């Protein structure tokens, strides 16, 4: 197929995608035309239309200033947001519920940067061509004129369609200029490599290698957003590889590249870094259909980051990583706090890292009821993710060993189900509550109540549910032994 023919097919596919949004495009186009303003669909929306993956999130650019945009759309919109108005963006909702189209309309931009500040100094432009030139990559620098008749002219002054056909990310201007303006664009390249399965041009890769340290200018919140989008892409491993190979990882996530220094104890992989990428791929394969699980993907990527710090060369010539899950969980907390993730996100990912080896500590199926209860209790609501992480962590090339590990985990899940049928494993609590503990021991609220509660919970985990009299007897025996008395304190 010739390049020209291929381009015609790509544009035909884009038109099909755009016509799916025909009514809203014609209506919004008519509003701006009546007000004497230009309107263009632009950026990721045009790119995704050409790729046949356009969603209900639509990006536009216009010569109208934000205040004029609000005036034009307010009578027509079902919802209006101004959270991005300081950057020239007005958010518009048209429709209701899941059928709502979400439109972002941004005034032509001609931003300036001082090469030091972390955010652009917003400056409005007057020409579409200048707006397209300031965009991150040529595949995001295409536009479609929108009028009362719907989609019109396709505008591609920077070769975006050719780059898209070749599946290459290149910058509209020299990459050194583009990345100097906003260093986050380098990390965005890794995100698009993951999301779109594209590669970067040679000059882009060279510029990233030279300029990666400038990512230190960017706020950690913006970095975290890009990392999440990269991990949730179709091929996050490709994005991670670009990030590590070019030095970006040394700035934003140094623990990942640091795993290249550690040899996996099974000696089945080049290093722990490659093993972790394999675990990430396998965890993705275990995700529920249509569900890209950010917590699981982070845990899979980071589950072994404690290995370099715990590596020991043993006398028999082997390598050990004792307690790397404990060290790794602490490292996860430190890194994710630095990136300002939510407490819930940090807790979930670090707990999965902490627990990912628990299964292997019990050998071939030697699970007592107590061990099963503790496994479920410690995992809590993370248990389904822990199942997937542990299974994904089996990367041995020895088929017999891999089959045995999976069979052992099948047995554990069966044991969990059997025990759950008899008792509530998801809410393992002491058989006596705090009020009854205080009454039986004649103590006021305070640390002693918590200690007694913890004793009863440990007992519950060890022995399962106790009847009331048995729980009372155990509590009193513990209390009397603890206080050196022979008689119940009731």
Automatic annotation (TrEMBL):
Gene3D superfamilies: Beta Polymerase, domain 2 (3.30.460.10), cca-adding enzyme, domain 2 (1.10.3090.10). SUPFAM superfamilies: Nucleotidyltransferase, Poly A polymerase C-terminal region-like. One of its GO terms (molecular function) is CCA tRNA nucleotidyltransferase activity. Its EC number is 2.7.7.72. Pfam families: HD, PolyA_pol, PolyA_pol_RNAbd. It is an enzyme of class 2 (transferase). Residues 272-378 form the HD domain. PROSITE patterns: HD (PS51831). Keywords: Coiled coil, Magnesium, Metal-binding, Nucleotide-binding, Nucleotidyltransferase, Transferase, tRNA processing. Its cofactor is Mg(2+). Signal peptide: none annotated. InterPro entries: Bact_CCA-adding_enz_type3_sf, HD/PDEase_dom, HD_domain, HDIG_dom, NT_sf, PolA_pol_head_dom, PolyA_RNA-bd, tRNA_adenylyltransferase. The keyword Transcription regulation does not apply. Transmembrane segments: none annotated. Residues 395-422 form a coiled coil. SMART domains: HDc. This is CCA tRNA nucleotidyltransferase. It comes from Mycolicibacterium pallens.
């Amino acid at each position: 197929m010739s390049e020209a023919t291929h381009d015609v097919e790509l544009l035909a596919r884009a038109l099909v995608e755009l016509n799916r949004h025909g009514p809203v495009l014609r209506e919004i186009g008519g509003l701006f035309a009546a007000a004497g303003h230009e309107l263009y669909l632009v950026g990721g929306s045009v790119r995704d239309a050409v790729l046949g993956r356009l969603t209900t999130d639509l990006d536009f650019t216009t010569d109208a200033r934000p205040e004029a945009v609000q005036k034009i759309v307010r009578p027509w919109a079902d919802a209006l947001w101004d959270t991005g108005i300081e950057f020239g963006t007005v958010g518009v909702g048209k429709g209701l519920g899941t059928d709502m189209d979400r439109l972002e309309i941004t005034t032509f931009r001609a931003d300036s940067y001082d090469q030091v500040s972390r955010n652009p100094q917003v400056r409005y432009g007057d020409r579409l061509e200048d707006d397209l030139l300031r965009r991150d990559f040529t595949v995001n620098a295409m536009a479609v004129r929108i009028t009362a008749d719907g989609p019109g002219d396709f505008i591609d002054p920077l070769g975006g369609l050719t780059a898209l056909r070749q599946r290459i990310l290149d910058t509209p201007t020299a990459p050194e200029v583009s990345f100097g303006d906003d260093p986050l664009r380098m990390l965005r390249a890794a995100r698009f490599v993951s999301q779109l399965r594209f590669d970067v041009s040679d000059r882009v890769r060279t510029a990233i290698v030279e300029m990666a340290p400038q990512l230190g200018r960017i706020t950690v919140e913006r970095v975290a957003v890009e990392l999440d989008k990269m991990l949730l892409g179709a091929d996050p491993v490709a994005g991670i590889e670009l990030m590590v190979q070019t030095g970006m990882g040394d700035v934003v996530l140094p623990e990942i590249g640091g795993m290249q220094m550690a040899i996996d104890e099974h000696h089945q992989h080049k290093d722990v870094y490659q093993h972790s990428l394999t675990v990430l791929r396998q965890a993705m394969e275990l995700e529920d259909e249509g569900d890209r699980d950010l917590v699981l993907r982070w845990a899979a990527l980071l589950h072994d980051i404690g290995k370099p710090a715990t590596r020991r060369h043993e006398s028999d010539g082997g390598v050990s990583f004792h307690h790397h899950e404990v060290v790794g969980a602490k490292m996860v907390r430190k890194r994710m706090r630095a990136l300002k993730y939510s407490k819930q996100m940090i807790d979930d990912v670090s707990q999965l890292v902490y627990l990912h080896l628990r299964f292997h500590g019990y050998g071939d199926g030697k699970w007592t009821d107590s061990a099963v209860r503790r496994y479920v209790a410690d995992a809590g609501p993370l248990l389904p993710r822990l199942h997937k992480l542990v299974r994904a962590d089996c990367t041995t090339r020895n088929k017999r060993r891999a089959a045995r590990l999976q069979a052992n985990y099948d047995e554990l899940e069966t044991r969990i189900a059997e025990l759950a049928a008899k008792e509530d494993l998801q809410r393992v609590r002491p058989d006596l509550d705090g009020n009854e503990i205080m009454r039986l021991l004649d103590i006021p609220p305070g640390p002693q109540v918590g200690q007694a509660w913890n004793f009863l919970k440990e007992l519950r985990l060890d022995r399962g549910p106790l009847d009331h009299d048995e729980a009372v007897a155990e509590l009193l025996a513990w209390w009397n032994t603890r206080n050196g008395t022979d008689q119940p304190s009731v």
